[in-house]
Amino acid sequence: MFVAHLPAAYLAVRAIRPDASRTVMAAILAGSVLPDLDLLWFYLVDARQHHHHDYLTHKPLVWALLALAGWARGSAIAVGVAAGALLHMMLDSIAGQITWGWPFTTWAATLVVVPATRDWWVASFLLHWTFAVEIAICTAASVVWFVSGKRI
Ligand SMILES: [Zn+2]
Q1: Where are its TM segments located (predicted)?
Q2: How many domains does the chain have?
Q3: How confident is the model at residue 131, as a pLDDT?
């Protein structure tokens, strides 16, 4: 997923916990994009040697442990960040490979395979129907945000 992590998280919170506090909403929204900060490492340090889904930031167990620790300490922020990140993992699983069983297995499967139809892989994703779904999510989140009395 390219652009819909944040709006998808916003929609999820509005649907599941419409009474969520601003703090919880902000934590979930932050968590929904936090895993992709590994792209800085991917481009600036790792020189694109490993797919960024192979980094710890894209391992669901890491976020599940954060959720557990946050729950144990009564931290709604930690639980919110972890929930947002786990939603990120679910959405990345649609057209990307996430190793849900890591560290016990490296098995991963994608729900939808995006074929390499263009020389530049990004163009292949942008021209695939799954990107239209992302645009629909962004549009829906925009509509909900505009008609909602709650801005965040
Ligand atoms: Zn990601």
Answers
A1: 24-44, 64-87, 94-114, 126-147
A2: 1
A3: 96
